[in-house]
Amino acid sequence: xxxxxxxxxxMSQQAHGMDPNHVVFRLRAGRDDLKHCTxxxxxxxxxxxxxxxxxxxxxxxxxxxxxxxxxVILESPYKRICxxxxxxxxxxxxxxxxxxFTDHRVDDRSEYYQLPFNHPADIAAPPAWAQDAVVYNIFPxxxxxxxxxxxxxxxxxxxxxxxxxxxxxxxxRGVIENLDYIQELGATCIYMNPIFAAGEYHKYxxxxxxxxxxxxxxxxxxxxxxxxxxxxxxxxxxxxVFNHVxxxxxxxxxxxxxxxxxxxxxWFYHLQFPVERPEDPETYPTYECFGYERMMPKxxxxxxxxxxxxxxxxxxxxxxxxIDGWRLDVASEINxxxxxxxxxxxxxxxxxxxxxxxVWETAQHWLNGDIFDSTMNYxxxxxxxxxxxxxxxxxAEFDARVTNMRMRxxxxxxxxxxxxxxxxxxxxxxxxxxKDLARMQLAVLFQMTFTGIPSVFYGDERxxxxxxxxxxxxxxxxxxxxxxxxxxxxxxxxxxxEHPALCRxxxxxxxxxxxxxxxxxxxxxxxxxxxxxxxxQSAAAEIPPINGKMLWxxxxxxxxxxxxxxxxxxxxxxx
Length: 575
Prior knowledge:
Shape: globular
Strand content: 25-35%
Number of helices: 15
Largest sheet: 8 strands, parallel, barrel
């Protein structure tokens, strides 16, 4: 038995509640090492000694190059559980509990692994609606001025004595007049990058958190946008920028003018007086910033006054405009205490309001049910880039990365991850594919059939490309005929929304071999199993026979059960 590979961490992604009656248990073991892994569980408050254990066989839920990941979703009659594992490699059988291997049980129940209480408040589950969502991410300045139109013209407006700027002419009215386009595409939710009053076109340098930027429209325009979305059954998520403000924000401006006498001096970090706004963009400012961006001083979110101010902002837009979620900028650089307070404030207004953190790295820390419901899954983009766009890894390595991505999170949180191929901060995925339609299509199909919430950046469906900021924030190409990619996006997005198994079903890999680009997997709920094969390579590939109905295919030959190079097949069958 490969003892070094065995791992179980209680009260983590390896032992957690899914709901008040179901608990997920996982154990990691060496690849192909164990023949059987059995969970033994009991009521830790049982009045008998020794406690009475029941058992259930665990199954290999996923594999990577080094490990098997055993899992069981236990429908438990107990709220308080003590448990251990029986490990069998075919020649040796051992018990595993308390992080030790042994050949016998003990009477003292406290020596076993513990799930002290499966408390509903601790279950890390995103709002129910989010699991079924398909998100369309709009960069407001770049999307639309009116119906199927963007002016491409810059603008300047005055806001309380400050100048706000637009670059390409996008407005909230333009979003309203194109909601039919977004909905027909297959999106059920829009997420907009910042829309509050701010200096530059991107609106990440905030001036006023309580009003819409005049370059984009008015507060009433936004109210109409939310109401129109809700009338269509669509949700609205907006961007919250609380890590930093613009350097003309009232509190920072007061610090610049009044120095150490400013009542806002503790709203910011590492101020050196007198505080000056450096004109030279290459100058390092004498205050903490977002990165070293001098125009975006970092806020001190440990300060109770700052916390109260931003928590009220969070409440305000939910209470007054009925938004459905916040995407939270630079979330990993803000203290946990602030986020817990922000969560409580927002959830008190609307329990189903989703909180999505911008976390580029592994995000377990923020997804335990007390901070965020979801994070932006940049690892999804990274792995898709390697496999689909660059074709620099084979199906086995891709699946290993997918497995790592799945097993690192509690199961309910996995269904809430925001899976993106690109965003306003990174190169367009179509550019990474070198404008190769087949590679892009396979990535999009995977995005729409994988576990989590797919997020489409505006214009991806119209083939917008670009490696640099000015390119990937290009204005929407309304004046051009939609390319074939647009029809593909529409079909893939509707495929997801029409099949609940793709939103809520389990995920199981069925084909992923070394030195091969054929990747196959299943999504299964209680009614339907959907099987997907993606042949991401220049050679044809034979796929296993599937007893089901064909939903969609390109390059599939039924007589020899094969897929053409860069082909795909999607099957459905009742379960």
